[in-house]
Amino acid sequence: LSLSLSLLSPSSFSSHLSINLAIYPSPISVGVLIKPDSRLRPTIDFAFRYANEQYAHVGGIVIEPLYNDNSLTEDIHIISAVVKMLSDGVVGVIGPADSSSVIIASGILSPLQIPQIAPQASDPALSSKAKHPYLLRLTPPDNLMNEVVIDVFSHFNWSNCAMITSKNNYGDQGVRWFLLQAFKRGWNILALEQHETPKFANTLDVRQQLTNIKNSDARVIIMYTMMEYAPYIFREAFNMNMLDDGYAWILLDTTGVHLRELPAPRVPTLPPGPAHHSTR
Fold first, then answer.
1. How far apart are CA 116 and CA 136, in angstroms?
2. What is the pLDDT of residues 73-123, one digit of tens each?
3. Residue 207 CB: number of other CB atoms within 10 A?
4. Burial 90-113 (b: 16+ CB within 10 A, else e)
5. 140-179 CB burial, b ≥16 within 10 A, e <16
6. Sheet holding 220-224, edge to edge
7. I need a labelling partner for 48 at 20 to 30 A (CA). Which of 38, 107, 158, 182 fits?
8. Among candidate residues 277, 276, 243, the one with its CA nearest the CA of residue 262
9. Could you tell me the pTM of the whole model?
10. 56 with 43: CB under 8 angstroms?
11. Who's near 234: CB < 8 A, 6+ residues apart?
């Protein structure tokens, strides 16, 4: 009797991520390493409910999430959280969110043949099945997404932009890669702003960063940030009229999916941007 650990996207999982559930007593625990206010939590809760409904007829097996506060991303806290989950008997782990933390967790889980699902990690280094044989990601690697950004810029003949990124591994990698591509092509980065990554996303303050971008006269803005911060960045951008016609925002990963869930004031439909003649 086996159950594929396909909690978030059943069709995406390889057969080697299957667990023999016959040897485990019910309920079966799957560790979840996400921030307490993460917008992933409703999705994960739904996935567990769906899995339990689908397998309700299989020997009374129940799969339950074992949440752990992944607010701190220092190496020692990630290691402690993973070790604690293993001591609690989890058969798999979902998370953490950022790539650097996923690498640390995978270093513990893969040698133990514990499946790990990374909903957001996009570091190309995680593509190595030799180093991370039990890791499965739900987003494409940065190098593929960044090639799309280059294609968009080239197609619309853009040469100026601004960037806002998070102060973590994800934001730093996005900045380094795009700066290199911009230098090769003679593009101008009119503003480069980074924001903090507070424990609770609703405490994020990006007014100064957005003011600097607005004053730079950039109209194409690239955002490399974790998805939980995106709604609050866009709420402030809306208040500053930076979602008006003539602005184009380029979002990566799963960031754009959550804009429809913005807290009031609700962000209106984004302007056409690339097709608008005043966008440069």
1. 6
2. 577 888 888 999 998 889 899 988 777 888 888 889 999 999 998 887 777
3. 10
4. bbbbbbbbbbbbbbbbbebbbeee
5. ebbeebbeebbebbeeeebebbbbbbbebbbbebbbebbe
6. 188-195, 160-166, 220-224, 248-251
7. 107
8. 243
9. 0.60
10. no
11. 243, 259, 262, 267
Q: How far apart are CA 123 and CA 116, in angstroms?
A: 15
Q: How far apart are CA 16 and CA 262, in angstroms?
A: 37
Q: Compute the Cα dihedral for 97, 101, 106, 109 and give only its sign.
A: negative
Q: Name the H helices within the chain.
A: 40-54, 75-87, 99-109, 142-155, 169-185, 207-215, 230-239
